[in-house]
Design brief:
single chain; 216 residues; alpha+beta; Glutaredoxin; Glutathione S-transferase Yfyf (Class Pi), Chain A, domain 2; four-stranded mixed beta sheet; 8 helices; globular; binds glutathione
């Protein structure tokens, strides 16, 4: 019998965008090959053919190539776990998940993810603005999670995986999560899901956040 082509995930081990995809692959127990794609690889002509934006993560599944972490989560849920809890089919359930995929691509990306990238790798971006946006996001999530176990449904969905990685590693960008107990409980719930693997930790910064970024 022919062995099916393995899934190939292009990414890096410290990319939260990549980690959210790795989480779903592992939680669905899908075998995959990990291909390291640091900046020089992403800039190569061969990679740009796969993703002209030059971004990771990128998933190859036989003849299908999917770029964008949240698009990959949707693809994997629909292709390998149709009808499961990971991505509800009903209109309200699907919209609730999409709302958090948008938060992951917006507030999470330009808040805690940007603060972390600026701190760890001097990535360009307004660090103070990222800190302020992080505070706004964390305050919102804390209130949302005070009465819920997961973001978009009574159970885990791809929304939780999309938001998890950069929030769990927010302190690496100088964004404290200690003042947010409901958020921390949610992070622990995601980390307890079968198949979970942590993203490697990076050093914590010594410098405190600007005052505007501290929760009152
Ligand atoms: N919307 C994309 C963003 C991915 C992204 O920003 N990836 C970063 C690494 S974590 C990257 O490849 N940056 C290189 C670039 O944008 O040129 C997604 O969700 O996958």
């Amino acid at each position: 019998m022919r062995t099916p082509a393995p899934l190939i995930l292009h990414g890096t081990k410290l990319s939260g965008h990549t980690h959210r995809v790795e989480l779903l692959l592992r939680m669905l127990a899908l075998p995959f090959e990990f291909v390291n794609a640091p900046a020089d690889v992403r800039a190569s002509a061969a990679f740009r053919i796969l993703n002209p934006l030059g971004q990771i993560p990128l998933l190859q599944d036989g003849a299908v190539t999917v770029a964008d972490s949240n698009a990959i989560l949707v693809y994997l849920a629909k292709r390998y776990a149709p009808g499961s809890n990971w991505l509800p089919d009903d209109a309200a359930g699907a919209a609730a998940v999409q709302r958090w995929l948008s938060v992951a691509a917006g507030e999470v990306r330009f808040g805690p993810a940007l603060a972390r990238a600026a701190t760890l790798w001097q990535a360009p971006g307004d660090r103070a603005q990222a800190s302020a946006l992080s505070t706004r996001l964390l305050t919102f999530m804390e209130a949302h999670l005070a009465a819920r176990d997961f973001l978009a449904a009574p159970h885990a969905t791809i929304a939780d995986l999309a938001c998890y990685s950069y929030l769990a590693h927010a302190p690496e960008g100088g964004v404290a999560i200690a003042p947010y107990p409901a958020l921390q409980a949610w992070l622990a719930r995601v980390a307890a899901l079968p198949g979970f693997v942590a993203m490697p930790a990076s050093p914590l910064p010594a410098a405190p956040l600007p005052a505007s970024a501290r929760p009152s």
